[in-house]
Specification:
By secondary structure, the chain is of the alpha/beta class. The chain has helices at residues 2-22, 65-81, 117-134, 162-186, 207-217, 254-263, 279-295, 308-314, 324-336, 377-388, 396-421, and strands at residues 28-31, 39-42, 55-60, 87-93, 97-99, 105-107, 115-116, 142-150, 192-199, 225-227, 267-269, 303-306, 347-354, 445-448, 461-469, 472-480, 488-495, 503-508, 516-522, 525-530, 535-539, 545-547. The chain folds into two domains: 2-37 and 51-362 and 375-421, TIM Barrel, CATH 3.20.20; 444-547, no CATH class. The strands form five sheets. It has an eight-stranded parallel β-sheet. A five-stranded antiparallel β-sheet has the order 14-15-16-17-18, with no helix packed on it. A four-stranded antiparallel β-sheet has the order 19-20-21-22, with no helix packed on it. Helix 3 (117-134) packs parallel to helix 4 (162-186) and helix 10 (377-388) runs antiparallel to helix 11 (396-421). The longest helix is centred in the C-terminal third of the chain and has 26 residues, at 396-421.
Length: 550
């Protein structure tokens, strides 16, 4: 079906070009979607696209192997029970990069770490085992697991230089290579492959640092890197004079965003499309047009990345709760405005938080799945790039990048063939013995530029205070409100390993108080200051924010 749709899209492009040169009239049409204003279309256009159901992605705060197996099993069970072969992606995000003072590399685990790459690898292996085993009689569905970090720069053992960024990127890519080799030896690879992934956001770090991380990642050949970040500040039709970047990092340019998301040989864009007003989709479509104008061919997207499930967990999203279906339709529509950017989107995935209180089990069960053999997605993508590489106006940089991408897909396709020749049995699920060494170390205290679960997209966090309390793990993030960026806000989260619900709250500062910073703990009070001089205190017993009594 995917191949057929792509053929139709190419046919549509040819018909459009013919109609233009023939001087034929273009008929306007409208179509309403998801309660928005009517979209304007031009014919000929094959706009309706079909894809596999949206898959779940996860912000990970625990490396519990039983939980990771269960999450993979849940997805494998779903694919087994959906008719036909599914093609999905699951991004497992482990938090910002850590460069350990003692040597080695890892991730922050959103305040529940740090954890080393070796432990991350083990946890991801259990996720893959769960998917493969529970997919049962389904022998053709495919899952790409994106092993994710970000370009966020925390303060605890940060990778805060270009040299450290490069070293961390290389270590992360080495972990991805080892995962793929493991999957071949286990006989999983024909149904499960591993890519690197990075949540590169323009408000978190410089383009120089982000390029350095990718340069390190590409020192280990044969790996892809999914870019699941944003294009903040980038232009779109309503604001074509914009460049890219944020107040914190205004040096970003469209060329930088193009490179880290698509221009780099390893980079594949899986952009976040959160905004319900469609601006995120408009920005990425504009960047695809930028790619056509400056590099001779569109930016090819792998799909869309949404956060609807996360928004249902915490409830404090502000116009950023696109469903995966809405995100998919928004980007597909924006790309369809021009024949040169119209394309098939392979994936849609929706992210949520997995906290330590959500350890559970999913039982595998076997059903007969009437599936049929088809071209594996890796071979399909390699073949698609043959078509792309015939474009006459490719820039030398993009041509080299696409040739490298095609080479990587061809290597992966060969690995798939090896795995198919010796597939692992699915009869018996593995015995899972959680290892204490995989538990992250919860770091108590005050952390500048800290990281914690649940912080909404667009919020700026200056400090995080966290501690083990009687009821579990308490984290408090101080910074700004998303809907009122000049107003201070606190984000509170209490989670516990042995309790199902979590407790969370958004506490706004008084209207005249700007961005907040936690300065210290004094007994049951957190002392807090705003950028414009407000002195406040948070009562950790009641979560009330009052003027500082001191």
């Amino acid at each position: 079906m995917a191949k057929f749709i792509k053929v139709l899209l190419r046919f549509a492009i040819v018909l459009t070009i013919i109609s233009i040169f023939a001087g034929s009239a273009v008929q306007p049409a409208t179509r309403r979607a998801f309660g928005q204003q009517p979209y304007q279309y031009t014919f000929p256009l094959f706009f309706h696209q079909t894809t596999s159901p949206a898959s779940a992605s996860y912000y990970v705060t625990t490396l519990n192997t039983g939980l990771m197996y269960s999450l993979g099993c849940e997805l494998g069970t779903r694919d087994k029970n959906v008719p036909g072969a599914q093609d999905s992606v699951a991004v497992l995000a482990f938090g910002y990069p850590r460069c350990f003072n003692s040597g080695g590399y890892g991730a922050n685990l959103f305040g529940f770490g740090p954890v080393a790459t070796g432990d991350i690898r083990t946890a991801v292996e259990y996720f893959a085992r769960g998917y493969y085993t529970c997919s049962g009689s389904d022998r053709f569905s495919n899952l790409v697991i994106g092993v994710g970090t970000s370009n966020y720069q925390g303060s605890n053992e940060p990778c805060n230089t270009q040299a450290k960024a490069t070293a961390h990127g290389k270590a992360w890519s080495g972990m991805v290579r080892d995962l793929n080799q493991w999957a071949i030896t286990q006989g999983f690879f024909h149904q499960v492959q591993f890519y690197g992934a990075n949540d590169i956001e323009l408000g978190w770090n410089t383009p120089t640092w982000s390029r350095a991380w990718i340069a390190g990642f590409e020192q280990v050949s044969g790996n892809f890197m999914l870019h699941f970040g944003d294009a903040a500040g980038c232009p779109y039709d309503a604001y074509p004079h914009w460049s890219c970047g944020t107040a914190e990092y205004p040096e970003w340019m469209p060329e930088d965003v193009w490179y880290v998301s698509y221009g780099a040989p390893s980079a594949l864009p899986l952009p976040l499309i959160y905004l319900t007003n469609g601006v995120h989709a408009k920005q990425w479509a504009y960047l695809s047009r930028y790619s056509v104008a400056n590099h001779g061919y569109r930016m090819d997207f792998t799909g869309v990345f949404s956060q609807w499930a996360y928004c249902q967990q915490f409830g404090w999203c502000y116009l950023t709760d696109n469903t995966p279906e809405a995100a998919y339709q928004q980007l597909a529509y924006e790309l369809s405005k021009l024949p040169t950017t119209t394309q098939y989107l392979r994936w849609q995935t929706d992210i949520r938080w997995i906290l330590q209180n959500e350890v559970g089990g999913v039982q595998a069960f076997q059903e007969e799945n009437q599936d049929i053999a088809q071209i594996h997605p890796t071979a399909d993508r390699a073949a698609d790039l043959d078509f792309t590489l015939h474009a006459a106006d490719l820039s030398p940089e993009l041509r080299a990048s696409l040739e490298s991408k095609q080479g990587t897909y061809q290597i992966l396709a060969e690995m798939v063939a090896v795995s198919k020749g010796n597939p692992a049995t699915k009869d018996e699920p593995p015995v899972i013995s959680p290892s204490p060494s995989l538990r992250g170390e919860f770091e108590s205290g005050l952390i500048e530029n800290g990281e914690m679960p649940g912080i909404p997209y667009g919020a700026r966090i200056t400090t995080v205070w966290q501690s083990v309390v009687d009821d579990g793990f308490l984290q408090v993030g101080a910074g700004t409100s998303v809907d009122y960026p000049q107003r201070g806000a606190l984000y509170l989260l209490l989670s516990a390993p042995d309790a199902t619900p979590i407790k969370s709250a958004l506490v706004l500062a008084p209207e005249n108080c700007g961005p907040l910073t936690i300065t210290r703990q004094e007994g049951h009070l957190l002392e807090i200051q705003s950028a414009n001089g407000c002195e406040l205190a948070l009562d950790l017993r009641t979560w009330d924010l009052e003027p500082d009594p001191h």
